[in-house]
From TrEMBL:
This is Delta-aminolevulinic acid dehydratase. It is an enzyme of class 4 (lyase). One of its GO terms (cellular component) is cytosol. Pathway: Porphyrin-containing compound metabolism; protoporphyrin-IX biosynthesis; coproporphyrinogen-III from 5-aminolevulinate: step 1/4. The lineage of its organism: Bacteria, Pseudomonadati, Bacteroidota, Flavobacteriia, Flavobacteriales.
């Protein structure tokens, strides 16, 4: 029989390949994580994240302007808190003059139309390096939610457009939503880290913020990486509690979860390509074992294919430079 269908006709050259391409990457896909420190004139490279930096507020301004000029219109802020300001309750997290609150204002001054999201979790503020208040070695849930709600309100008052709770306490989305509604921050959004797994891929990030847990691990609140169905339960509960955007984290090992969530929900889905994923590519490329740019592109495209609407990635600038 004569062969009538030949799939390779659609791969003949770049023109036809681009004509039939199912997914594309644009600067609008990205949420750019930014690490902020106290001080002046600081742009320090994170040792386990080559090419990624912590900025003091004065230098953050230039970075934000550059992102904006590249078409990167959304940032996600993290702060590195000095040790002497850490305690069990994360008191510094709700200081209206705290580093996060000042960072929000700095970013908005540098680029007034940029979308500012703030990390909401106690770990950078916790003397134990945990995402909640510790009592007898256990991270207590409901008391922690109250602090997270106060913290979210404080970020909204500083000008944050979205708060992004990354802690995995039960019921924190509802606690945050109620406080924001009551205090007339009805327009402030919540991007929930809904399905966040207890992962060793967060290692370099904990170096970046000096936020590694001082005892134990995070398995009593973050998800077990053996579980798939549980991600849907977590995600649907957060949507019921008022989450505007949901997230799966980490990224590459969890593409099945990204697709499951995308098929199950009617809100935008974000994925977080975490520090360890970034570090692996950088390290292999440095050794000459992988081609940095094509591997980076292939991974980012995998997130789009899996169904992510939003990609939080340390590669955002690299990608935009490569595509332009
Ligand atoms: N809440 C942020 C993290 O837990 C870690 C992110 C990363 O490893 O990039
Ligand atoms: Mg949950």
């Amino acid at each position: 029989m004569q062969q009538l269908r030949r799939n390779r006709r659609l791969r003949t050259n770049e023109a036809i390949r681009s004509l039939v391409r199912e997914h594309t990457i644009t600067p609008h896909d990205f949420l750019v994580p930014l690490f902020v420190v106290e001080g002046k004139g600081i742009k320090e490279e994170i040792p386990s994240m080559p090419g990624y930096y912590r900025y003091s507020l004065d230098l953050l301004t230039n970075e934000v302007k550059e992102l904006w000029s590249m078409g990167l219109k959304s940032v996600l802020l993290f702060v590195k808190v000095p040790d002497d300001l850490k305690d069990n309750k994360g008191t510094e997290a709700i200081n209206p003059e705290g580093l996060m609150q000042r960072a929000v204002k700095t970013v908005k001054e540098a680029a007034p139309d940029i979308l500012v999201m703030t990390d909401v979790a106690l770990d950078p503020y916790s003397s134990y390096g945990h995402d909640g208040i510790v009592e007898k070695g256990y991270i207590i849930n409901d008391e922690t939610c109250k602090v997270l709600a106060e913290m979210s309100l404080s970020h909204a008052q500083a000008g944050a457009d979205f708060v992004a709770p990354s802690d995995m306490m039960d019921g924190r989305i509802l606690a945050i939503r109620e406080v924001l509604e009551k205090e007339s921050f009805k327009q402030t959004g919540i991007m929930s880290y809904s399905a966040k797994y207890a992962s060793a891929f967060y290692g370099p990030f904990r170096d970046a913020l000096d936020s590694a847990p001082g005892f134990g691990d995070k398995k009593t609140y973050q998800m077990d990486f053996s579980n798939r169905d549980e991600a849907i339960k977590e995600t649907l509960m957060d949507i019921d509690e008022g989450a505007d955007i949901v997230m799966v984290k980490p990224g590459l090992c969890y593409l099945d979860i990204v697709r499951d969530v995308r098929d199950a929900v009617d809100v935008p889905v974000a994925v977080y390509q975490v520090s360890g994923e970034y570090a692996m590519v950088k390290a292999a490329a440095e050794k000459g074992w992988l081609d940095h740019d094509t591997v980076m592109l292939e991974q980012i495209m995998a997130f789009k294919r899996a169904g992510a609407h939003i990609i939080a990635s340390y590669f955002a600038k690299d990608i935009v430079k490569l595509l332009s």
